[in-house]
Structures are given as C-alpha cells and as structure tokens.
Batch of 2 targets.
Target 1
Amino acid sequence: MSVLPFDQRDGFIWMNGVLTPWRDAKLHVLSHGLHYASCVFEGERAYGGQIFKSTQHSERFRKSAEFLDFEIPYSVAELDEAKRLTVEKNGLTDCYVRPVAWRGSEMMAVAAQHATINVAIAVWDWPSMFDTNEKMKGIRLDIADYRRPDPQTAPCHSKAAGLYMICTISKHRAERKGYADALMLDWQGRVAECTGANVFFSKDGVLHTPIADCFLDGITRNTVIELARRRGIEVVQRRIMPEELASFEECFICGTGAEVTPVSEAGPYTFTPGKISRTLIEDYALEVNPKKRAA
Ligand code: PMP
C-alpha cells in the first residue's frame, strides 16, 4: 500500500492542550495504554468545516473513559473546542477526526491508579463515499468467528481500544477471503454488528436492527433511526438470529466512517440494495451537510 504512514505526515495534532507539529506527537513505548489497552477513542467526521454531532461524540468519549475507570481531564465543551481548533489549524473542512485518550507511563503494571491521562486529537482527509450508484452495488460481508462479548465480560458500551482486537482479527480474515468486512454475532449467537459499523435489514418496508445491548450504540445508528422515522419508515429493534437473514430484502451498515453502505451478501445470505438504502444514503448525506441542513 502506498498510503503515507500516519506518523510521517504534516500538520498539527492537539496533544494535552497544545497544538503540536504532527511528527512530534509521540508517546513513550512504556505507556499503560499500549500495554494494557487502557485507551479509548472516538471517530468523527467534519462536513463543510463542521463536525457532525461533535458534542455527542465528546460525551461518548468521556463516558468510554469512565467505563475504563478513568476520567478525561477536559470537559465536553473543551473537547468540542479542541476538535474545532484542530480541524481549522489543519486547514481541512471535510475530514475524519480522531480523539484518543490513554493512561501514561507513571505505572507499568495492571494497576495504574496514579497514571496521568493523556488526550490527543488528530484529523485527516478521508473523503466520504457519496457516489450513491457505486454504493448501491453493495459490499460483501463474511461472518466473523469471534463474537461480541457478554456485557459481564467486557465494558461493551465503551469505545475502548481493547474491544477492537477481535474486530481487527475478524476484518483481516474477511479481507483475506475477498470480503469487505465481517458481520459479528454476539455472545448469544444473535446478529450484532460489523467490525466498525452497525447493521440494519429491511422486510416489507420495515427496518429491523439488533438491540444495542452488548455493542456500540452508534451515533450514526441513532441518526438513521431518526431519519427513517421522519420518512414514516417503521424501525424495529429486536433480537435477530442469523437464520432469519434469508428473509430480509435489503441490508446496510452504518457508522461515522461507513456512513450508510448497502450490503449485497452476508455469508450465505444475499440482499438486493434498493429503495430504503438509497433513501437513507441520500437523507444521511443531507443531514450531515451543514449547508443543506440550513437550507
Ligand atoms: N460499532 C463499532 C464497533 C464501531 O467501531 C463503530 C464506529 N465508531 C460503530 C459501531 C458506529 O458508531 P458511530 O455511528 O457512532 O460511528
């Protein structure tokens, strides 16, 4: 891959309150966050210079840290302002925004009660894929071997780095088999979500999506539910077993990165991206665009 490595770019990364030259935004190899996964992050997008639902992301960021027993030393308002400043300082308008918080180097054992909490915010170019016709071909999903963990075994509502270990493994396995991503079941064998996005299905004009009781209740997922309801499309959140996928007509995934992306296959099940997917791709594109929203 010829993508410029992320540590060899130019620009500024907000680090513990200071806009730092990109290449100098480093941490020590002995960091608790790296060794023990005491690390949480966010994934956001700015459209037309405005971060979509910035405050909700800042709130979730602080909540994610609380689940991991640490407090982010900046308020929601301070985080919102820091993100806005970082986007502006890097001269970007349409970009991805990545806040990350981790325990530092003061203690290097399981317990790290007195480790400092570090916070950084980076932004980079990541064009959204709003070529609807291209998207309407749909992506192909593998079914992951790993399952979303039981809420009694992991802080499953935190956007915690450690929870992504099984996502990376599942996505790698899927890509090696020629799939775009993997659909993950949960600890009870129910359909849960993809490795970095939530999932919806349609049948007879009604949308169905799994209850977010053991995985991330995405900000995009909630936006899509709201957009569908505005259109008068009924949305049912319920237990969905994999065998039932044979009876659905459309399927799409959604997340800050994926936006709304139709699915043509999930393991042995096939779907035909159609009217509901197209409508929600278009409604989402309007919803995130500050100019179109104001119009
Ligand atoms: N599930 C997982 C595992 C994710 O990583 C993401 C992306 N943050 C989502 C769902 C969707 O969340 P959001 O819509 O808030 O980006």
Note: The chain has a mean pLDDT of 96.
Target 2
Amino acid sequence: MFNPSPLPVASRAELVAALEHADAPSLALTLAHLTGDPSVLPALGGGGSWLTTPQGGIPPRERARLRSLAAEVLAPGGAAERAGDALPEPGLLRALTRWALGEDTTALLPMIAEDLAGARTDPKRPRWRRQPGSRLSVAIVGAGMSGLLAAHRLAQAEVPFEIYEMGEDVGGTWQHNDYPGCRTDVPSQLYHYSFAARTDWPDHFCEREVVQGYFRDFAKEFRLVEHIRFRTEVTEAAWDEEEALWRLRMRTPEGEREARAAVLVCATGQLCRPSFPAIPGRDSFAGLSLHSARWEPGTDLTGRRVALIGTGASAAQIVPAIAGRTARLSVFQRTAPWLRPTPHYRAPVPEAERWLLEHVPFYREWQRFWLFAPGIGERGVLDGWIVDPGHPPTERAVSARNEALRAALLASMTAQVADDPELLARVVPDYPVGAKRVLRDDGSWLRTLRRPDVRLVTERISGIAPDAVLTADGERHEVDAIVWATGFRASEFMAPMRITGRGGTELSESWNGDARAYLGLTVPGFPNFFLLYGPNTNLAGQGGSIFYFSECGTTYLLDALRVLQESGARSAEVRGGIHDHYNAWVDQGNALRPWGFSGTTSWLRNAHGRSAQNWPYSAAEYWRLTRGFNPEEYLIR
Ligand code: N01
C-alpha cells in the first residue's frame, strides 16, 4: 500500500501531457539527479521568499525548458534508464540541495540523504533486536501520529509494547477533530511517515478523512492494531524504584485496570485536550455548544444562527465550510491571523501530477524534499523569524526579512479586500508575522467574511447569556449555537494524567504549568520516561512537518533502549544540569523569535509567558541532537 515503486513510463504522449502539471523545482531537482548534471537547474526567483513564491519563482520560459528536457530524459533509452535506483553521489547531492536551500549543505547531507532514502530503504529503522531475557517492555500512551510510530519501531526491534488509547480509533487529534472543512495545512506530500509514503493523495492538503484513513491503514498494515487497548484512559503512572518499572492505572469501560512496563512513552501530544475560555456565563448557554476538537458527527447547523468564537487554524477551516448553510454566522475575532497565499489549498492533485508521482523516478522524493527545504536549514523559514535587535524589533516586524514577509502578506490580503478598507483594517494583524501560526489562504477566508449572511465581530466578548453572546459594546448577539474554535490546552502536557517519578515527585506539580524536557523527550527525576511531541518540539512555520520531529524523537527513544539493553542497566534518567543547560539554550532561541518576542496572545506561550511549545532552531539542528542517545548525559543505573 505504501511506497509503490515507480512504474515504467508508458507513452511519450502521456508523459508530455503530464509534464504540463509538473512542479518546476521538484522536476528540476529530479532532472539534475537523473542526468547527474546540476547545470540544468534554473535560477530561483522571488528573492527566495518561501512564503509567497509559487514554483520557486522559476519563470515560464525556464519551466518549458525543463519540460522539454524531461521528455528526453524520461524517454525510453534516456538518462533516467541509465541513472538506476541510487541517490545522487555526495558532490551532486550537495549541489542540488545547495540550490534548493540557498546555503551550503555540506553538514546537512547525512540528514538530507536519510530523508530522501526514507521511502525506499527506511534508513531510520532500528538495526538492533531485543535479546532473549531482556527486561525491555514499553507502555505507550496514545495511538496518534507519534504513538503509532513508536509502536512500529518497537515492533521492528522486537520489543514488547502495548498502546493505551482513550478514544475508539487511531489518529489522535485527527480522530477528534471531525469538524466541517477539516484538512491538513501541511502538504500531504510531507505530512506522512518518511518510510510510508503514498503517491495517490487526492488533494495537495488532504481532508481529515484521508489523513485518518492513512493512520488506520498504517496501523493495519504494520499489525499495530492488535497491540492497542482502545477506550483505555491512563489515569496514573508511577515509577516503582525498587522494581525499576512503571506501574500504570487506567480506566476502561470494564472498570479499572493496571499494567506495568520498564519504559513509559507518553505520546499524547500538544493538541489533545480542548480549551474553553473562561468567559462569564459560558455554562448558561441553552443552545447547541460545540468545540472544534470534539465535534459531534452529524451535527446539522442548517438554518441556525451561529456564533463562532476564534480565528485560528480550526476557525479558518470551519467558517468557509458552514457559511451559507447557517441562517447567520457571527465570527468573533480577538486577534486577526496572518494569511499565507496558497491558491491550491483546497484543490485536488491533478490526475496528470499523480501520474508523475507514480511514474517518474525520484520525482516524489524531490517533491517531498522541496516542500521540506524551507524548514531544514538556517536560510528558509528561520531566516524570516529571527529577531534582529539592530532592526529594531517592534510589534510590526522583528527584522528586515520579517518586514518583507509582512509586506508580501499584506499585499495579498489587500488585493482581496481593496474595495473595503474598513474590513481590511480589521483583518490585518497588529503583530509580527510568525508570532502566531500563519494560516493557509486560498481566498476563502476573506471571501466568506464578506458574505451578507456572515458578520465579523471584533468587539471583546464580555459574557455568554442563555441565548446570546454579549460584547463589551453592550450588543447582544442572539444565536442558536456556539462553535468554540478556541484551540487546545497545549501547555498542559498529558493532563489530567498523574505521573509520579523518583521520590514521589508528581510531574505536573513540578512543572507547575511550565513544561520542560531535554530534547522535548526526557525529564530529570523520571527514569525510563519519554515524551513524544513533547515540550518545544512544535514547528514554527510551514517549512516542515511534525511527523519529522516525531521520527527524530523516536529514533532517539529506540537508541536509548538499545543502550539500556547493552549496558545491562535498569534505568536511564537525564542529568539535571544537561536538562537545564539545554532549556536555557532553547529559551534563548525562543526569546529571539516572533512568538517569544511579541506580546500577542497565542497557544505558543504558557501562563508564565514562556514558549514551551515551539522549537526555535532548524529541523537539521533537532536531527543532529536526536540522532543518537549519549549515555554520558544520563544517570544509568
Ligand atoms: O486554536 P488556536 P486552533 N475570546 O489556539 C480565540 C493545529 N491545527 O484550534 O488569537 C475570543 O490557534 C483565539 O484568539 P487569540 C495548528 O497547529 C492544525 O485554531 O488568542 N477569542 C484564537 O483565535 C494550530 O495552530 C490544523 O486572541 C478567543 C482561537 O480562539 C493549532 O492546532 C487545523 C478567546 C484559538 O486558536 C490550534 O489551532 C486546525 C476569547 N476569550 C488546527 N479565547 C491543520 O490543518 C480564545 N480565543 C493541521
């Protein structure tokens, strides 16, 4: 099902027709690879702005040249046939990746080569196996993206494991986020496990059902389902020092259960529990009340007067999907979102492009790489996010590059509502680009806000009455239903689970609302305990995918288990100094990013004002830090 091998090119006519739909940078990289000649790469345009330049800014004339060359290279007897199945040799790989990233990639080559080879050889798989008599066993909490991945890697290493999942299905956040219009905002060509690619994504950014189906297929294909205990909520986990294992208590429909395992992996992520704002009178509302992350399937809003609270990523998907069905829709905005032009956001992948993905050797890999490229190094997304004290940073922009991004996004928004300056003034954010998640925009957000049956309310909400949302200007907005698109309790990692480590220390008490971990993975005082998608492992921009970070974390986890087994020790616990030093460095980075610098509200900062969510550096940096477990950083007992 995953990673189908490229099929032989069928006919020249088919090829020429399909090439019309090729993504120019991905095709250029493919051709340079297959011919071994980096000189076929055209100049990139658009000043390198990853955010706003489609097709890498390659002009139409150059695109036509690439298509003609492709027809030759991919013809029977052409260079593609001679290229074989190998990745480019290091010199060529350096030239290709340097072109895409705009920086020297010498130090990044192992990471890039590993990802490029992912779908063919899965180089990240564990190379060791559990030995007979080993005491290794693992309890995983959560059957979402990270939990399934950890389970698969453990199965490869023949380490016994069980997954405890409070829901009825796999997919984590995708299981619960079943609201109208739900789809990824990371391209599907990137939003998957590197070793389990698909060529047949129906859309560039797939709908929730497709993503959920991917996780179901994955769990089935790799026989993980039989290890999952559904409807099982872990309520407590306590480290038993004498036995050197974790004791778990859980709630199931059949009653309380207990389990034990040498290692505990919490893969509950950051976007698990819905957040409801503390608005006076919230519980008094007598109509239908729905949260985006706990949508009731089959809910019909047709003909109802609806208030939707929030203007984040979830709202941006729900609002266009329900407007027109509702009798009236009032959208309550506290802070406006920045919008990133993505004209193909809701578009299907044309049949012809799918044909290329299936038939052209390495096109799929290079497309994934091209989509990932802005997040890999220092010159992509990060370049626009770094606060430049010399600029000097303000709530408008934090650097000249960030100011340029602002100008580009502002121009795109202005073009959409140029004839309505009053609306424009209300939808343009008053904080730097990057301080909150930048939303994908195919025009539908602002178009929907302009509908006669939709109203954007920017007055502060002062309360909720049984039949209305009340605003500070004294207006009653009478409604039949409220949709809370108000996000997640992202700072409360793993809540309300009670996790007790060495000496009876309780994790959420010791964190006190300010979660920290070494590499987002391990915590002092909590031996044999690993988090996946833990503190400071969230991605800042749209230049990568959280799948990548989970893969890095899982590689580290498996390597830690290998070291434990080989050393004959019973536990590993990160040293406090290592943890503290690392977190100081992460905080330093986050303080110099828009989400750390800006005073705007967002889930990217906790109640202490610290960003416990985002990773402030490059994906390559996280890869470097997590590619191997260093026992010297741990108390190994
Ligand atoms: O939640 P959010 P989300 N009065 O926290 C507003 C991922 N995701 O569910 O900005 C009025 O971003 C709040 O206002 P403000 C993605 O990582 C991915 O939309 O704090 N408004 C904000 O507008 C995303 O970043 C996909 O001033 C109030 C909104 O509620 C993350 O999930 C799709 C308020 C909450 O926005 C969270 O996104 C969806 C109040 N009292 C989500 N309190 C994909 O496509 C809060 N708000 C993969």
Note: The chain has a mean pLDDT of 95.
